[in-house]
């Protein structure tokens, strides 16, 4: 005797259905290759209204994420600490101040030339949170609403780590709105 057919949690006919990552994800994912250079990625940010891209290897496996913030960090001075000696030599005490120069004082042209050919693999974050298409919506929400690290988008990967979709915070909000209006 065959077991009775049961409605799956993602079946729209099921009253108590639970959304999964597959219900939230965008399958047309814009990515960057790990060997793309900084200049290529800047062009992608200019072309698309995204604040970050998954970084993939030659087999479309997710190896990192690069965000606008990662690229902005290229233009921040390495040393922002100002040490001020106090007293007479030998200086036994110092005061430390954090110095943040205004954007107008940074030489972005020189920094861009210096970093343009740099591979994005040197700039990207490699500690990437991913989910599978079957991941429950609660786990996706936990990732997108956590404080550390601040995650704005979650790549969706298959069992081999290949990218099959992406979920942004806005995708979750829109899905809940659409479900509520239905």
What does this structure look like?
The protein has 182 residues and is α+β, with helices and mostly antiparallel strands. The chain has one domain (21-181): CBS-domain, CATH 3.10.580. The chain is 27% helix and 20% strand. The protein has helices at 21-24, 38-47, 68-72, 108-115, 137-145, 169-181, and strands at residues 32-33, 52-56, 62-67, 81-86, 93-98, 153-157, 163-168. The strands form three sheets. A three-stranded mixed β-sheet has the order 1-2-3. Strands 4-5 form a two-stranded antiparallel sheet. Strand 2 and strand 3 form a beta hairpin.
Any key phrases for this structure?
182 residues, CBS-domain, two-stranded antiparallel ribbon
Summarize the structure.
This protein is α+β, with helices and mostly antiparallel strands and 182 residues long.
Element order: H for helix, E for strand: HEHEEHEEHHEEH
The oligomeric state of the chains shown is single chain
Give the overall pLDDT as a whole number.
78
- Which regions are unreliable across 5 or more consecutive residues at pLDDT < 50? 3-15, 106-110
Query: So what's the overall shape?
Result: globular
CATH superfamily: CBS-domain
What's the topology here?
Blueprint: H1 21-24, E1 32-33, H2 38-47, E2 52-56, E3 62-67, H3 68-72, E4 81-86, E5 93-98, H4 108-115, H5 137-145, E6 153-157, E7 163-168, H6 169-181
Parallel strand pairs: 1-2
Antiparallel strand pairs: 2-3, 4-5, 6-7
